[in-house]
C-alpha cells in the first residue's frame, strides 16, 4: 500500500490565492493531523488555470447540460481558465493517485454543494464548482471544508480497507 494523499484547496491552508488576495485558513484538529502526517497536497484550481491574484470575482453564469460559462463581475468570460484549472487539478490527483479532496465551499471552482447564484448578489444556490464536477466525474470523493470529520472517517476507512493504490 502506498502513502495516500488528500488534495486540499490551498486557501484552506493559508495561501493567499483567493480572488480578493486573501486566504480562508481553517484551524481544525483533523487538518493538523493530516499536516503532521504529510498527506495533504494543496492546489488552487483558479491559479493553476492562469488567473491572477487578486482577480475580479467570478461566478458560474449559465449551466445548461454540458455548457457552463463562468464570468467575472465585469462581464469577462473566464470559463477556459476555470476548465484548465479543473483539468490541471484532476491531472494532479491522477498523478498522485488521490481519491479524496477537501475543497472550499461556495467557490465557482471548488464548491461541493453550494455556489453563488451567478448574479453577484451574495446568494448561494445548490450547485457544484467546475473542479468539483471534474473530480467527481472521475470518482474522486469531494468534501467541503465544513465536512472534515466525514472526510476523516472516509480516509480512515480507505486506509483500513486498503482501498488506496
Give keywords.
165 residues, alpha/beta, two-stranded antiparallel ribbon, 5 helices, 8 strands
Question: What do these coordinates show?
Answer:
With 165 residues, this protein is an alpha/beta fold. It has helices at residues 29-37, 45-48, 79-95, 130-137, 148-160, and strands spanning 6-9, 40-43, 58-64, 67-72, 100-103, 114-116, 124-126, 141-144. It has one domain. 31% of the residues lie in helices and 21% in strands. It has a four-stranded parallel sheet with strand order 2-1-5-8, sandwiched between helices. Strands 3-4 form a two-stranded antiparallel sheet. A hairpin with a 7-residue loop joins β6 (114-116) and β7 (124-126). The longest helix is centred in the middle third of the chain and has 17 residues, at 79-95. It is globular and about 45 Å long. It starts with 5 loop residues before the first strand and ends in a 5-residue tail after the last helix.
Amino acid at each position: 500500500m502506498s502513502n495516500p494523499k488528500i488534495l486540499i484547496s490551498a486557501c484552506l491552508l493559508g495561501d493567499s490565492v483567493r480572488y480578493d488576495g486573501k486566504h480562508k485558513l481553517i484551524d481544525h484538529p483533523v487538518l493538523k493531523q493530516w499536516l503532521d502526517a504529510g498527506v495533504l497536497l494543496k492546489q488552487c484550481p483558479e491559479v493553476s488555470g492562469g488567473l491572477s491574484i487578486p482577480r475580479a470575482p467570478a461566478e458560474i453564469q449559465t449551466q445548461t447540460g454540458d455548457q457552463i460559462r463562468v464570468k467575472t463581475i465585469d462581464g469577462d468570460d473566464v470559463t477556459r481558465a476555470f476548465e484548465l484549472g479543473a483539468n490541471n487539478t484532476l491531472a494532479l490527483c491522477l498523478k498522485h493517485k488521490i481519491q479524496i479532496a477537501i475543497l472550499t465551499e461556495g467557490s465557482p471552482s471548488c464548491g461541493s454543494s453550494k455556489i453563488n447564484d451567478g448574479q453577484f448578489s451574495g446568494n448561494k444556490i445548490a450547485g457544484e464548482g467546475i473542479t468539483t464536477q471534474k473530480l467527481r466525474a472521475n470518482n474522486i470523493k469531494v468534501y467541503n471544508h465544513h465536512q472534515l470529520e466525514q472526510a476523516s472517517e472516509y480516509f480512515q476507512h480507505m486506509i483500513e480497507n486498503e482501498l488506496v493504490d
